[in-house]
Design goal:
The complex is a heterodimer of chains A (494) and B (391). Helices cover 36% and strands 13% of the residues of chain A. Chain A has 494 residues and is α/β, with parallel strands linked by helices. In chain A, the strands form three sheets. Chain A has an eight-stranded parallel barrel, surrounded by seven helices. In chain A, strands 3-4 form a two-stranded antiparallel sheet. In chain B, helix 6 links the parallel strand 10 (246-249) and strand 11. Residues 1-5, 228-234 and 387-391 of chain B have low confidence and may be disordered. Classes of the chains: A alpha/beta (494), B alpha/beta (391). Chains A and B meet through strand 4, helix 2, helix 3, strand 8 and helix 9 of A and helix 1, helix 2, helix 3, helix 4 and strand 6 of B.
């Protein structure tokens, strides 16, 4: 395993790691069948996870976004956890019962209006005392659009161009109030100094905005921006716009390669080599000993992918009912119904070569002697994203990530709600702190301070706010919660 | 007064927006102007309102006239959500627009508010439709009947989405591997009708969040949205868990509120509650209420469409008792929150409780409890019981 830390382009590894926690809400990774599995919607579940994370000096608490309930073969999907709150409403409530942790809302650029979304994020940023962040996601599928006034209006090819114009508009909203715009005392001539707020105007292909922003900047200047797209276009978008990439490359070698690529793109976009941080999605299965952890992993996997999930996973690619097949037997010999494959899952399988994929999978399972269940478990568990081992072994592994600068931290998806962070905070965090690679206290009061991110240059309103001309045809994640599906989609396109 | 003391159901709501209803209120506030836009301020005001014994806190939203007064405002749903875990009895009601918002998002946000507040959420419907609000999202101004139509459509979407998960849809059945009972999930299948005056739309559903704790959140709307024939058009008050539950009204002056309450109740047939709107300025700190208004008016005059009470605590106690004999609730808009809330807390609410005109404050009670509404049956469950079909 190489530990080459020569990232290039002037990048300096911080030698430190940060943790975030991703309360996904909808996924097959959350174990709901265990006795300890708690509610996915009670406020107490969210409070417990957020407060545990804060006890463990986590930088951020993430929520996914739901735009349409997942479906499977034309009906709501029954087998995985589902049902989740609005991200910003929940985060505003959590802001009242936490003091330091960052609060990250996954929010879509396609089915929100830029002025409104920017306003609500600015509001969350102020309510939380400068702890808000936005995980920027896009979607273009009309199926999701069926829940919204505009319906499906966006071409796949336009999604990043649309998103970038949206983000630029949001930045103008956040930067629209001059510092000191609000009266310093009750004797000032007016509450808001005349001329201290710039209206935001944008006239583009997809929307028109003429807006007088109603909120000043927070103590962290503006919300932190996360982004998860992974195509070349998505990476360039992040290099221009984002503060943190929620990446899909946790294995050390892949993470280093991704870092080099992102640093090069960031510098190319005119920003500093350390301006964009990287936090891969990850899962931790820990124990006092390696053996205990290995046994726990087997148990977790059996609960994540039961026989029904294994069949359902194949059904979304086959596009047909496969309930007659034995989950402990070989993959189905019949071919997928290509036209009906998987759009209803809300992810990007359009144009996927399902039949070819089925042939590949059958061959692979046959070669390795895997049953349906074993095959699907291996495919959905994201082996490279799971850290399994004793607390101290995993801490040693993570210390290497810190030393090489491969990542800035990890965004952890707990497999158990609400207690899934307890052992990470109780056992892994102290090991990391003892190795000097994890904070022992919060660096400040804002998320920007925790992460050590630079103060952004203030966006200036431009006379012509027309749509950006950069063409972009990326295939980023539909929502952060769909990252697994996006990975699957990418595999399809190989 | 006719209501028997043991059955008193009158409730008091307090508007917590900004520094108070007077546009110059910020000059009399007990904090630096910029402190208004913080979580600390939400915490301080909602806790003060709860400990004073108010039943309901409301959170206004929408555009502001920065030339006249405070020019900044936090999102109302977020303010209410922030207050949720900090409080135990006070009902939290944000004002949420229906014209330029996505009904799907609004329904989800309000259901989420119900979860974070333990079933103490409501929805104060707004439909401004101004050109400035429209320009922010690239849509035209909306006025007249079209406003009520937008509001009615949004409410209907919310109602259908809140019922799109039956109670008990999360089954966690380990043996069958099913987390959900899909038979208990339903499409909303909302579509604006052919006569919809604005740009029509549809919402498929189901919701992304299970049914709210209260089943259906109480929905409040200003009487202005009920005008004339619009009552028949979907904003109709009442009907089984459709339309709105409560109507807010005012009158040209405070003495006219009790009479108006009866008229509004007749117009809004079926609404379970009529709520009077009242601006309030009290004698405070040795200063007469009228003088306090005059001082603030010297900075910027206070124009308000609501009835106003200006005077001592005793007179307000009598006025509120009279109104609550006819109306179900009164929403107070204090001229200066920091000053008038103190007086209300010390001089007014204790007296009203002694008179027995206020409903008891119930810890962990829902908004529906306060309104005397049972937790409603789910429309989809009910349909099945009647043998009707549902796709």
């Amino acid at each position: 395993m190489s530990e080459n830390s020569d990232i290039g382009n002037g990048f300096l590894p911080s030698g430190q790691l940060q943790f975030g926690v991703f309360f996904q809400g909808v996924n097959s990774g959350t174990v709901w069948k265990a006795a300890e599995s708690g509610s996915q919607t009670d406020f107490e579940s969210f409070r417990h996870l957020a407060q545990t994370a804060e006890r463990g000096i986590f930088a951020a608490f993430f929520l996914g976004e739901g735009l349409r309930l997942r479906e499977h073969l034309g009906r709501p999907h029954a087998l995985d956890v589902a049902g989740r709150p609005d991200a910003q409403t929940m985060l505003a409530a959590l802001a009242a019962v936490t003091n330091k942790i960052g609060l990250v809302a996954t929010q879509n650029t396609t089915y929100n209006d830029p002025a409104h979304l920017a306003h609500r994020l600015a509001s969350l940023d102020l309510v939380s005392g400068g702890r808000a962040a936005w995980n920027i996601v896009t979607t273009d599928n009309a199926w999701t659009g069926e829940n919204f006034r505009r319906g499906g209006y966006l071409d796949h090819a336009d999604r990043y161009r649309h998103a970038e114009a949206f983000v630029e508009t949001a930045k103008l909203v956040w930067d629209s109030w001059d510092p000191g715009a609000i009266a310093g005392s009750e004797t000032a001539p007016a509450w808001l100094r005349p001329g201290s707020v710039r209206s935001v105007r944008h006239a583009g292909q997809h929307y028109t905005v003429d807006y007088a922003p109603r909120l000043p900047a927070s103590g962290q200047h503006r919300p932190i921006l996360f982004q998860a797209g992974d195509s070349p276009e998505g990476r360039d978008f992040a290099a221009r716009q984002a503060d943190i990439i929620f990446s899909a490359h946790p294995a050390l070698e892949a993470a280093l390669a991704f870092r080099r690529d992102i640093v090069a793109r960031t510098v190319n976009a005119g920003r500093g080599p350390n301006d964009v941080q990287i936090m891969p999605a990850s899962e931790f299965i820990l124990g006092a000993t390696a053996r205990e952890a290995a046994e726990k992993k087997e148990w977790v996997r059996s609960l994540q992918i039961g026989p029904q999930q294994a069949i359902a996973y194949l059904e979304q690619f086959w596009g047909r009912e496969l309930s007659g097949y034995d989950p402990d037997g070989p993959l189905p010999e019949i071919d997928p119904v290509v036209a009906e494959t998987s759009e209803t899952r809300g992810s990007g399988f359009h144009g996927a070569k399902a039949r070819q994929l089925a042939d590949q999978w059958r061959a692979e399972a046959n070669d390795k002697g895997l049953s349906i269940r074993q095959f699907v478990s291996g495919r959905t568990s994201r082996v490279d994203a799971t850290f399994t081992g004793s607390y101290s072994d995993v801490a040693d592994t993570l210390a290497r990530y810190a030393a090489t600068g491969a990542v800035d931290g990890f965004n952890i998806s707990p497999w158990l709600v609400p207690t899934g962070l307890d052992e990470i905070v109780n056992h892994l965090v102290p090991e990391l702190q003892a190795r000097g690679v994890y904070p022992t206290e919060y660096a400040g009061s804002t998320l920007r301070e925790h992460l050590g991110l630079p103060v952004p240059r203030r966006a200036q309103a431009q006379p012509d706010g027309g749509a950006d001309a950069r063409a972009d045809t990326g295939a980023g994640a539909d929502t952060a919660a769909d990252i697994r599906l996006e990975l699957a989609a990418r595999q399809l396109q190989l | 007064m006719s209501a028997a003391k043991a059955q008193a159901r009158g409730f008091l709501a307090l508007e917590l927006d900004g520094d108070g209803a007077h546009p110059a209120a910020w000059r009399a506030a007990r904090h630096a102007p910029a402190e208004l836009l913080t979580g600390h301020r939400i915490r301080a005001t909602v806790l003060a309102a709860e400990s004073a014994g108010f039943h309901v806190a409301t959170f206004s939203d929408g555009p502001l006239d920065a030339r006249a007064g405070v020019g900044g405002r936090l999102d109302a749903v977020q303010r209410a959500a922030f207050a949720g875990p900090l409080t135990h009895s006070i009902v939290l009601v944000p004002e949420v627009d229906t014209v330029y918002t996505e009904p799907f998002h609004v329904a989800t946000q309000l259901a989420s508010l119900d979860y974070v507040s333990g079933g103490r959420a409501g929805w104060l419907v707004a439909a401004g439709g101004t050109g400035a609000e429209g320009a922010a999202v690239g849509r035209p101004a909306v006025e007249g009947e079209a406003l009520a139509a937008e509001a009615a459509a949004s409410i209907e979407v919310g109602r259908r989405l809140w019922d799109s998960w039956e109670d008990g849809a999360v089954i966690r059945d380990v043996d069958s591997g099913r987390y959900l009972d899909v038979g208990k999930l339903h499409y909303a299948d909302f579509e604006t009708g052919p006569d919809f005056p604005g740009q029509g739309y549809s919402v498929k559903g189901p919701a992304i969040i299970p049914r709210p704790l209260q089943g259906q959140l109480p929905v409040l709307a200003p009487a202005g949205l009920l005008g004339g024939e619009l009552l028949g058009g979907g904003l109709a008050a009442g009907g089984r868990d459709s339309g709105i539950d409560a109507v807010l009204f005012t009158a040209p002056d405070a003495d006219g509120l009790a009479a108006e309450a009866g008229l509004v109740r007749a117009r809004a047939q079926g609404a379970v509650a009529v709520i009077a709107e009242l601006d309030v300025v009290l004698d405070a700190r040795g200063q007469r209420a009228a003088e306090r208004v005059a001082e603030l008016d010297a900075h910027v005059p206070w124009t308000s469409s609501r009835a106003r009470y200006t005077g001592g605590a005793a007179g307000l106690v009598q006025l509120l008792a009279d109104i609550l004999a006819v109306a179900d609730g009164v929403r107070l808009h204090p001229a200066v929150l920091d000053v008038d809330l103190d007086e209300l807390s010390r001089q007014v609410l204790p007296q009203l409780r002694r008179l027995g005109v206020l409903a008891p404050v119930g810890v962990d009670a829902t908004f529906r409890d306060l309104l005397g509404l049972a937790r409603p049956a789910n429309r989809n469950t009910a349909l099945e019981h009647q043998g009707a079909t549902h796709e």
